[in-house]
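Chapter review: from sequence to fold.
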Amino acid sequence: MVSSRLYRDESITELTLSELLAFDQSTLAENDMLWVDLFAPTPDEELGVLQTWFPVHELVLNDLRRAQRTGTGTRSRLHHPKVEDFDTYLFLIVHALIMERADGSEADAAEPIRRYALEQLSVIISEKVLITHHLVPIKALQSVEQMCTMNRKVMRRGPDYLSHIILDEVVDQYLPMTTTVEDRLTEIEHTVFRSPTTLTLQRILEIKRIVQEVRRSAVYQREMVNRLARGEFDLISDEEGMYYRNVYDHLVRVADQLESNRDSVLAIMDVYFSISNTRLNQVMKILTVFSSIFLPLTFVCSVYGMNFHFMPELEWQYGYGFVWGLLILIAVVMWMYIRRKGWLE
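The token string follows.
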């Protein structure tokens, strides 16, 4: 689906795909701007917009299509966030954090963290045209669309300003995730000290995987926004560079929070394994104690279990009671000795 918004003369006009393809970009005045959003476009729509109306480099098309899902429903690996300068336009790749729809399973209800996922958002910035490309609905773009509807002058400042707003909204979507991770880690920490199970370890590893993946994307995007903020590209004006520095500051904070989350996950994993090892050692200690007690008892029973004919105690009237008394005495003495040494503590 292709949606186009033309800002001209203090008003926004929606263009159909046919109107867009017939639109002459050279007619855009100084304060005019055109925002084209490609949401899960068909090959024909992609061909019409990105090869006929606004021709882009073949490498850009390859990066745009990299995040498409295969026939089995799985998605290929996302391209890492980056910015490239093609003279007349800038090509950006960012990772937007989305909340995938839950399938209603008990695992989803117990662990909402696993429903977070990263999706590729591609942005093309030219002097008067902004093109966004994505395969799934992205909340950040929806927020910017509402913002442009409520305040039409947002588009007046040009594609470089609008792209900064999109990046800022994308970064803001990371913050609820970090808060959710902190809450889940607090709950898991209490569970680890109370009654850790294999399911607890699975949840820890799931959070660890997601935190590392999101942190990696945040670090890449931090470096990318830093390049946009320091005036490296002519299509980003010095005035708008200040806003990109603000986005950079937000990304620094997000990256720091994710780093803190990762450290917390690793610490909880260490505690989990320490407690598990402690419990295992306690079990082994108890088993060893019982084995130590029964070892001499087994020896005595083995001696008197031999079937030799000439054994004096076999004909003794009090032999059976004597052996029982000996076994009990040995067990009591061994138990008292072990308790006195503190081996059960």
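Two observations follow directly from the output. Residues 70-74, 102-110 have pLDDT under 50 and may be disordered. Residues 49 and 55 are 8 Å apart (CA to CA).
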